């Protein structure tokens, strides 16, 4: 009996020791590796939520795949939601002229392909934007579109749908991209 109790305690201790000896363990998963071994296009195509399907149709139709796959750029990819918002806005404008008109992705690709190429250029910053480049007030960056610039900033959030977890003492920081239609004079306050 004495050996049996000792054996049970030994097995439990051994199991606890091996279970707790995991280097770099985080609750909920493994360490995040920020490096992705694929092109920007492939990353957008493989998005598990399908947030960029319409963008990829536009990129393919306009022949922009190589442009967004360039090295040493940062591409702020518009989601399908933002593209749909634009299509809805254009449909309303068309229906003010004729209530039976429609404006769809096909209309965009047929009639505004040059505008699309120009629009994609405003979402490309011709350099790598890293966390160290950002502030809460925002930093101004030139875009691929000649003479156009953007403010890129971050904001800390405690919104759970944006990644906040109450067990963490650090707040997630959400990056914001703001296209500037007109130049701003300093001081710039992104909010």
Structure report:
The structure is a single chain. This protein is of the alpha+beta class and about 190 residues long. The chain has a domain at about 35-125. It contains seven helices and five strands. Strand 3 (about 140) and strand 4 form a beta hairpin. The chain is globular.
Which features characterize this protein?
alpha+beta, 3-stranded antiparallel sheet, two-stranded antiparallel ribbon, 7 helices
Helix-strand sequence: HHHHEHHHEEEE
Radius of gyration: 24 Å
Overall, the morphology is globular
* Oligomer type: single chain
How far is it from the N-terminal to the C-terminal residue, by CA? 71 Å
SS strand fraction: 5-15%
Mean pLDDT comes to: 81
What are the segments in which pLDDT stays under 50 over at least 5 consecutive residues? 13-18, 20-27
How many strand segments? 5
- Helical content class: 25-40%
């Amino acid at each position: 009996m004495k050996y049996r109790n000792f054996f049970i305690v030994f097995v439990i201790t051994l199991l606890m020791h091996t279970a707790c000896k995991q280097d770099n363990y985080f609750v909920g998963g493994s360490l995040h590796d920020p490096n992705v071994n694929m092109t920007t296009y492939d990353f957008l195509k493989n998005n598990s939520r399908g947030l960029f399907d319409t963008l990829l149709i536009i990129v393919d139709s306009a022949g922009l795949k190589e442009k967004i796959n360039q090295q040493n750029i940062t591409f702020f990819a518009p989601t399908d939601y933002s593209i749909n918002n634009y299509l809805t806005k254009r449909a309303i404008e068309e229906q003010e002229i004729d209530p039976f008109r429609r404006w769809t992705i096909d209309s965009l690709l047929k009639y505004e392909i040059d505008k699309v190429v120009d629009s994609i250029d405003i979402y490309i910053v011709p350099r790598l934007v890293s966390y160290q480049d950002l502030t809460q007030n925002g930093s101004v960056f030139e875009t691929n579109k000649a003479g156009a610039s953007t403010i890129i900033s971050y904001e800390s959030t405690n919104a759970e749908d944006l990644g906040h977890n109450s067990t963490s003492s650090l707040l997630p920081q959400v990056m914001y991209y703001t296209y500037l239609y007109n130049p701003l004079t300093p001081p710039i306050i992104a909010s």
